[in-house]
Amino acid sequence: MTETKPNTQKIEQIFAAIKSGGTDEILSACEMLIVEDEFFQWEGAPQVRKQREANKLYFLENKGIELVINLINTTTEDLIKRFGIDVLWAYSETDENRRELLFAGALPIVINCLKSECPKVQEGAVGALWQLLEYEPIQTKSIEEGLLEPLLNLLTTSKVVRTQTRAAGCLHLISWNEESRPALIRADAAEKIMSVETTALMVNYFRLLALANLLLVPDHRSMIPQEVFQKALGQISSFISTETPEGVRAIEDRLMYIWVSMRPYVPLVYSDVKELFLFGMFALANLTYKEDNRRLLREEDMREKVLSLGFVTIPEAKAYGQTIMKNLLSNTKPPEPPTLYSIVYNYLNVKYRN
Question: 270 and 263 in contact (C-beta within 8 Å)?
């Protein structure tokens, strides 16, 4: 098989343009990295993806990330800063790419840009941050760096749906971390999250997942006024009754969402609060459709616990459970029947719930 070689000439031209100091040249070079399939654009045929992998490796090994970080650090122009942060965001396609960004020191730059007074810079930073927040240390770091208020402000005040979606996604990821939830509650996150009025599906999906996580643990729930708690359950119930897992999945597929863990979703389906349980079922009916997510369930030893959800008897959850079981079994060749562990686990859960 012929090895795919990087387009070294073009990458070196981009490096030279970024180092030139000319605004037009820098912006053109950054745009090339962001939008061209062979560089950091996420879509493309298999051969294009191979070319992109080769180009990314050359970019990485020749200190391209550090070059862009230095550009963002030293420029006085907001537009260049925005394009630079978008380059880092576009680079972060895979889990490995995200770790490479962190190792190269991208996080402090993203944090500084999120605190910028320029909305365009903030918009790029919240997208880049979203890609990094799936890691626990980053979730904790975001609170230490005072990012909750900027993120909540973007969610509640931005008029741009994509910015709201990214802010909601960031808050959702921070809420994955149980240790981060008290700080979110003290920042009035529950009330602010509920104040958002929008018909944008993904804004509502992510903000309500964050809200559900804040309500999940009884000790955290006790920090929230009862009327706020009841209103939150009402918003979650309304979402479930009007939206479908298939609707969410269609958008996630189109935007090529890639998750690094399924662990944060599973506790919802074992909540004693019916609305949280149903929302967890909704989320897993969506997530189990994708092979990458099913692989994560296996790797994280949660497949059997999730498979057991196919046996739920609660009427409102039956359709979700059937979808989950279908996703987990019909895509396995040959199909693997539920194990005794799975059946017993579900029985105990149903008995506990009733």
Answer: no
Q: Is residue 54 part of a domain?
A: yes
- Pick from 216, 207, 226: nearest CA to 181: 216
pLDDT of residue 49: 86
**Rounded to whole angstroms, how far apart are CA atoms 131 and 109?**
14
Q: What is the pTM of this model?
A: 0.89
Query: Residue 354 and residue 344: Cα distance in Å, rounded?
Result: 15
Model confidence pLDDT, tens digit, residues 157-214:
988 898 999 999 999 999 999 999 999 999 999 999 999 999 999 999 999 999 999 9
CA 286 to chain centre: 14
User: What pLDDT digit, counting tens, does each position of 24-76 carry?
Assistant: 999 999 999 999 888 988 777 788 889 999 999 999 999 999 999 999 999 99
Pseudo-torsion of CA 267, 264, 185, 190, nearest 10°?
A: -80
Q: For position 27, what pLDDT does the model report?
A: 96
Q: Cα separation of 137 and 309, whole Å? A: 31
22 falls within a domain: yes
Distance of CA 306 to the CA centre of its chain: 20
3-state secondary structure of 77: coil
Q: What is the mean pLDDT of the chain?
A: 90
Q: Is residue 1 part of a domain?
A: yes
285 vs 293: CA distance, rounded Å: 11
Task: Tell me what percent of the chain is helix, strand and coil, each rounded to the nearest 5.
Answer: 75, 0, 25
Work out how many domains the chain is built from and give that number: 1
In a domain, 36, yes or no: yes
Residue written as token pair 């576009």:
90
Domain that holds residue 77: 1-105
